[in-house]
Amino acid sequence: MSQRARVIELYKSLLHLGKDYPQGFDYFRTRLKNAFMKNKDVTDPEQVQKMIAHGEFVKKEIEALYMLKKYRTLKRRYENQEQG
Length: 84
Prior knowledge:
mainly alpha, 3 helices
């Protein structure tokens, strides 16, 4: 897969994750677009690879935060049911 295709795939997957962002999708989309546009002129394949790796790391961190949020919500619900 070409680097361009990987960057586009990363952008789309991050954009999809932004739908559940606490500060809103518009805020997330604007920040994401600015981050990608800031680096649009980078042509060094090694540098692009590092940026893709960083983007994948950010993606995993966001997914982990979402899972933690869901876990805490479920835990709170079950604790409330046991008390009630």
